[in-house]
């Protein structure tokens, strides 16, 4: 199935709803049946068929089919958030006494899931520098059931060799989960590399318009049925049909949006790398990135994230820079049509010293999410804001 078919037609059954081109929002919690036999049959097929919207809803089902096709997966489940998708995946794979190996510096709530929530229920974990396959191998124990990856990972964008880690895990009966939000299904296909489960924050590129929080999980039918009959149905973190319809609309331009940021983001990364006030740039596709060969092997193109640190900048100078930007909105998250700036100092108390914590991103890091604007406009804005870093407040 080609990408244009998936985006424009796959999963849509227009003849069933008056030929409407846009998908209907089936705002119904329940579905009725002509007789008891039909009701009984539907009750056993909740994974696929409309019965009760916590299990399946036709608008959400269209989205599930498109996302599964985009990831080359048998099945997909959609959740109320990316965090819910990741939590459901992990919970479905572990029990008390089990052990999880997780990439160092994962998304903050993935860290909290393992370090705080599941630790209370007897699930042990270890965070490792998973860019080094030997560290992953050394962290495995007889109790390890799952390896949680995020490639590229949040904020500093280290990548993991997905095929090598899958090859390490599979013969030992260990499952692998990869958060693919950064690359999007267009730029990386973890399942094709042997990974078992792929999670997305659909809040980011899949929806792409900063108006929905949602998540997705893709994988084999067998694994997703395990997730469905376990945490999916019991925790019930489902998206509403309106949210699903908004994401279906966002997906119409996914290819165009990813093509756009793949063109503009390298220009912005190169501008920052060459600027005398910039100390360091984190960008997966930078020519000097030591992981470049691996990235070329397992990723197709650049997404729109780039992080950097200013030279000799304290928290006040970082704030001056961010406050001076006119074209980047100050906000968390990423992956929308609009460019964003997110300085990590915003998460520290005012006046706190910038101290590097082990296994965390540097506190002076500033992340940009590049939107759909002209790169010239964004570079001019960065230029004028960088000129103000040294100025008196
Ligand atoms: C945002 C994000 C999540 C969480 O997704 P939500 O939709 O905010 O719950 C998970 N992983 C990564 C890499 C993210 O950036």
TrEMBL record:
GO annotation terms (biological process): transsulfuration
One cellular component term from this protein's GO annotations in UniProt: cytoplasm
Modified residues (N6-(pyridoxal phosphate)lysine): 204
Co-factor requirement: pyridoxal 5'-phosphate
Keyword annotations of the record: Lyase, Pyridoxal phosphate
Annotated GO MF terms: carbon-sulfur lyase activity; pyridoxal phosphate binding
Regions annotated as coiled coil: none
Annotated family: Belongs to the trans-sulfuration enzymes family.
PANTHER family associated with the record: CYSTATHIONINE GAMMA-LYASE, TRANS-SULFURATION ENZYME FAMILY MEMBER
UniProt-recorded name of the protein: Cystathionine beta-lyase
Taxonomic source organism: Metallibacterium scheffleri
Lineage of the species this protein comes from: Bacteria, Pseudomonadati, Pseudomonadota, Gammaproteobacteria, Lysobacterales
């Amino acid at each position: 199935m080609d990408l244009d078919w998936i985006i424009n037609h796959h999963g849509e059954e227009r003849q069933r709803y008056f030929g409407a081109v846009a998908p209907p929002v089936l705002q119904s919690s329940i579905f009725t049946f002509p007789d008891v036999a039909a009701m009984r049959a539907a009750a056993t097929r909740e994974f696929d068929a409309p019965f009760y919207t916590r299990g399946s809803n036709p608008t959400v089902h269209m989205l599930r089919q498109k996302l599964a096709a985009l990831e080359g997966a048998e099945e997909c489940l959609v959740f109320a958030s990316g965090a819910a998708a990741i939590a459901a995946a992990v919970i479905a794979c572990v029990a008390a006494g089990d052990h999880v190996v997780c990439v160092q510096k994962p998304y903050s709530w993935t860290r909290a899931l393992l370090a705080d929530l599941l630790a209370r229920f007897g699930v042990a974990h270890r965070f490792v520098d998973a860019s080094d396959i030997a560290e992953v191998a050394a962290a495995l124990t007889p109790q390890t059931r799952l390896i949680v990856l995020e490639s590229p990972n949040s904020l500093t964008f280290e990548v993991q060799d997905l095929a090598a880690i899958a090859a390490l895990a599979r013969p030992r009966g260990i499952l692998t989960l990869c958060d693919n939000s950064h690359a999007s299904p267009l730029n990386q296909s973890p399942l094709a590399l042997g990974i078992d489960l792929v999670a997305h924050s659909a809040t980011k590129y899949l929806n792409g318009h900063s108006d929905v929080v949602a998540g997705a999980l893709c994988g084999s039918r067998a694994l997703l049925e395990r997730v469905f009959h376990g945490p999916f149905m019991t925790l019930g973190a489902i998206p509403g049909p309106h949210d699903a319809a908004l994401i279906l609309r966002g997906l119409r331009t996914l290819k165009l949006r990813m093509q756009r940021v793949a063109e503009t983001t390298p220009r912005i990364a190169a501008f920052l790398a060459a600027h005398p006030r910039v100390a360091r740039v984190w960008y997966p596709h930078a020519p000097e990135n030591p992981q470049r060969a691996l990235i070329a092997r397992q990723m197709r193109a650049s997404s729109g994230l780039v992080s950097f640190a200013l030279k000799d900048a304290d928290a006040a100078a970082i704030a001056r820079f961010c406050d001076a930007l006119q074209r980047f909105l100050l906000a968390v998250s990423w992956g929308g049509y609009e460019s964003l700036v997110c300085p990590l100092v915003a998460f520290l108390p005012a006046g706190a010293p910038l101290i590097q914590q082990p296994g965390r991103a540097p506190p002076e890091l500033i992340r940009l999410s590049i939107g759909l604007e002209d790169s010239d406009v964004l570079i001019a804005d960065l230029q004028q804001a960088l000129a103000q870093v040294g100025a008196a407040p």
